[in-house]
Every structure is written in C-alpha cells, then in structure tokens.
Amino acid sequence: MTNCIFCKLINGSIPTKIVYQDEDLFVFNDINPKADVHLLLIPKKHIESMLELTDADQDLMGKMMITANKLALLHGLNKGYKTQINTGIGGGQEVFHLHIHVFGNR
Ligand code: 5GP
Ligand code: ZN
Description:
alpha+beta, HIT family, subunit A, 5-stranded antiparallel β-sheet, 2 helices, 23% helix, binds guanosine-5'-monophosphate, Histidine_triad_HIT, Histidine_triad_CS, catalytic activity
C-alpha cells in the first residue's frame, strides 16, 4: 500500500527504530507514547483493520498476540500490561493498517 504510513515504516522509506521484526510481523515504538512502554505490533501484510480479517488470518493473529506477550516481557512488563486494537472509524482507528498497541508502566 503506497499511501500507508505503516507500510512505509516496514519498507524503510520512512526510517524508524525497529524493536522487532520477522517474516510476518514488524514492531516499533509509538511516535506519541501514552505509557513508559508503548509498542505498535503490525503485520507486514497490509490489512486495514480487524474488519478485513478472514479465516486465512488465524495463524497470523495468533502469532501477533503471542509476540505481543513476548515483547511485553522483554520490556520488563512481567506484572502485566494493556493491549488495545482500535477497529474502524467506529472504534477510533486513525491509521488504517491493523495494529496492536501494547501499553505498560514499569
Ligand atoms: P490508532 O488510533 O489508529 O489505533 O493509533 C495509531 C497510532 O499510531 C497512534 O498512537 C499514533 O501515535 C501512532 N502513529 C501515527 N503515525 C506514526 C508514525 O509515523 N510513526 C510511529 N512510530 N507511530 C505513529
Ligand atoms: Zn499498510
């Protein structure tokens, strides 16, 4: 998606500090953090929002949740943390590339 800011972070046309990536996922710090730790986990595949998910995305979404937990623990959030997925205009989504917010205070 050429006009998607998160796809530009994935393909490097906009530079960002990469927290984690693998063949499916890309993780970076939110530009406007709302907690000590505020990660954004996104699939490398452009999916606009949860509204677009199909059965074919089952493994990907499972991997996103498990990776969110691993990264939260790596960031010292072993007492717990908050996750948030805003979906669509009705859910307050502002960037239309599916993402999981991970919030935590140390
Ligand atoms: P949403 O409301 O769509 O769930 O949240 C989008 C999030 O993306 C916001 O928390 C916002 O601060 C973050 N964000 C928007 N543009 C950029 C950017 O260019 N770089 C980074 N790192 N975060 C961004
Ligand atoms: Zn995208």
